[in-house]
């Protein structure tokens, strides 16, 4: 490979919620752009082996509220 510069891939979820010792990454999607699927896969691969790290994709306010309730119930059931 020649001396070509490799540009870093960056991705930041819309929200990061801490609950106890767990972290929930939330991505709010309206329209998926061309680069999102690969960035999502890379991010999921990065957090896959980390304990207490979760990813959630929501498409509406209703989805977000319901998902947060489910996550809270899940976290409480672990105690």
Describe this structure in words.
This protein has 79 residues and is an alpha+beta fold. The protein contains 2 helices and 3 strands, in the order ββαβα. The chain is flat, with a radius of gyration of 15 Å. The model has no long low-confidence stretch (mean pLDDT 89).
Mean pLDDT: 89
Structural class: alpha+beta
In order across it, which strands form the biggest sheet?
1-2-3
Percentage of residues in DSSP E strands: 15-25%
Helical residue percent band? 25-40%
Q: Low-confidence spans: pLDDT under 50, at least 5 residues?
A: none
Order of helices and strands: EEHEH
Largest sheet: 3 strands, mixed
The N- to C-terminal Cα distance equals 52 Å
Tally of DSSP β-strands: 3
Shape: flat
Rg: 15 Å
Topology:
Layout: E1 15-19, E2 22-28, H1 36-47, E3 53-58, H2 61-77
Parallel strand pairs: 2-3
Antiparallel strand pairs: 1-2
Q: What's a concise summary of this model?
A:
This protein is α+β, with helices and mostly antiparallel strands and 79 residues long. 37% of the residues lie in helices and 23% in strands.
Main attributes?
about 80 residues; alpha+beta; 3-stranded mixed sheet; about 25% strand; about 35% helix
């Amino acid at each position: 490979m020649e001396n070509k510069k490799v540009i870093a891939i960056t991705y930041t979820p819309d929200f990061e919620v801490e609950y106890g010792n767990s972290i929930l990454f939330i991505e709010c999607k309206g329209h998926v752009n061309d680069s999102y699927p690969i960035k999502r896969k890379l991010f999921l691969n990065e957090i896959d082996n980390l304990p207490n790290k979760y990813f959630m994709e929501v498409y509406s306010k209703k989805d977000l509220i319901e998902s947060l309730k489910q996550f809270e119930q899940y976290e409480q059931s672990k105690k």
